[in-house]
Amino acid sequence: MPSTSLVYRTALKLGAALAPAIGLLSPRWRRGLQARKEAGGRVLAWAESHREEGRPLVWFHAASLGEGLQAEAVLRELRRRCPECQIVYTHFSPSAAGLASRIDADAADYLPYDIPQNVDRLLSALKPDLLVFAKLDLWPELSTRAFSRGAHVAIVAGTVSPESTRLRWPARTLLQPGYRVVTAAAAVSADDGYRLARLGVIPDRIRILGDPRFDSVLEKVAATSAQDPLLRFGQGAPTLVAGSTWSEDEAVLLQAYAGIRSVYPHARLILVPHEPVEHHLARIEQVASASGLPRPLRLGATTEATPLLLVDRVGLLAALYGTGTMAYVGGGFGRAGLHSVLEPAAWSLPVAFGPHWRNSRDAALLLDGEGGTALPSGTVAAAAALEKVWSKWIRDDSNRLEQGRKARQVVERGRGASESSAEMLLQLISSRSPRMSRIAGRSGQRSGR
Question: What's the pLDDT score for residue 444?
């Protein structure tokens, strides 16, 4: 049976032991440690009282919010096709805690560190038929031990950046046993499939099924009520919604907005920081004041539209994009990595973002489809470029609407991955459970397969 190496196990145990010390230096890391103190506890409690061994159990793991949003549409589709299945959802990052609290799973919790005693405890309690990892964050100890107990191991929304550290030595060697036992992998693109094979997935087990996140964002837009109070903040004026921003993004945005306001005083900006902690919000307010802009009003303190709205809560961005006439997505400066451009595109908004977009397949698709605009490097040059495109969007409605229509088309073309991925998972479940063959047959008839 495949297994992880002594080097991998030693490294994980050492990392778990050193984590509290790292937490002393990083408030963000410390919050994660605190949240993971009893990782898996609620899942174990659920298993003790609710696990029905006569029913198939599917265990989804998505490390953080981005991966969770990709897994969500597949999970929902699998639930629809297999109501008999019990579903467990785990994550590692605190960013996914909000999603875990509302996702359609029977149990959800943090996943503890990937060390044997943690893994064995959860596998013994859950007895999964299928273990599903989202995107790339496969845990080798969990993967190999689940496989050795007879579970299928799958990947959905498989995405591997060309610059991923997992492709380099020694990470690739240490992680390879976990990828080697994957029964089926749904890759987003052929390039991702090639890189999954480099990580160790057997090539003939890889299928190119697209990105289920496209389905997820389209569903969210369709489910947003026209009476949602968030939508009023952009009514009556051209409004740029800037989502998941970092300090580098905000420097560009506020400088560009100062120029826009001098020509279009009715223009609005809604700033949605990626981490709306107090010290970050206060810094934005200081920079806005120094730029001669109106005093930002925080969302928690106003119910009326305002020239500069500062969002001080999380979980609202998907709906807030719906109030905009144009969008900016953060993370394209610095090392944060570009955040998702799909949500504003699904709202038919033209999208601008920073110069570090090449690791984002979605940003590349938007640029190719003429629904997005990439800014140059450097705060001054980027602010000037953003001001220029922002001004064009305000004065030329037809151009803005056409670019937004093209952005939406990019998302529409990505439909269907969640259904294909759920079908793949259902086939794996059925291969383990003869009584599930009837369900698989019905599913195949519905989908035309």
Answer: 46
pLDDT of 418-444, one tens digit each?
A: 999 999 999 999 986 544 444 444 444
Instruction: Provide DSSP, 243-265.
Output: EEE-HHHHHHHHHHHHHHHHH-T
DSSP conformational letter for 207: E
Give the pLDDT score at 64: 87
Sequence-separated (6 or more) residues with CB below 8 Å from residue 345: 217, 351, 362, 366, 371, 372, 407, 408, 410, 411
Phi-psi region of 316 (alpha: psi -120 to 50; beta: other; left: phi over 0): alpha
What is the pLDDT, as a whole number, of residue 93? 84
Dist. CA 269–CA 272, nearest whole Å = 10
How far is residue 287's CA from residue 97's CA, in Å, rounded to a whole number?
A: 31
Can you tell me the distance from the alpha carbon of 348 to that of 323, in angstroms, rounded to the nearest whole number?
Answer: 11
CA dihedral 151, 157, 163, 166 (to 10 degrees): -10
DSSP 126-144: H--SEEEEETT---HHHHH
Q: How many CA atoms lie less than 13 Å away from 10 in the CB half-sphere?
A: 3
Helix or strand holding residue 308 (H, E): strand 308-310
Q: Across the strands, what pairs with 241?
A: 270, 327
Res. 21: pLDDT tops 80:
no
> Rounded CA gap, 265 and 132, in Å?
51
Q: Quick check: 29 pLDDT over 70? A: no
Task: List all residues 6 or more positions away from 117 whose beta carbon is below 8 Å from its beta carbon.
Answer: none
Token code pair at residue 438:
């009837």
Which of 11-20, 35-44, 436-445 shows the lowest per-residue confidence on average (mean pLDDT)?
436-445
Structure tokens at 206: 């890889």
Which residues pair with residue 310 across a beta bridge? 271, 298
Which secondary structure element, helix H or strand E, spans residue 130, and what is its range? strand 130-134
pLDDT at 23: 56
Quick one: which of 167, 148, 136, 159 has its CA closest to 61?
A: 136
| Residues shown for the chain | 449
Domains and CATH numbers, the chain: 6-212+416-447 (3.40.50.2000), 220-413 (3.40.50.2000)
The radius of gyration of the chain from alpha carbons, rounded to an integer in Å, stands at: 23
* 344 prior amide bond cis, ω within 30: no
**Cross-strand pairs, 271:** 242, 310
Strand order of the sheet with strand 130-134? 107-110, 86-91, 57-61, 130-134, 152-158, 184-187, 206-208
Predicted TM-score (pTM) of the model is: 0.84
* Residue in 217, 210, 204, 140 with CA at minimum distance from that of residue 175: 140
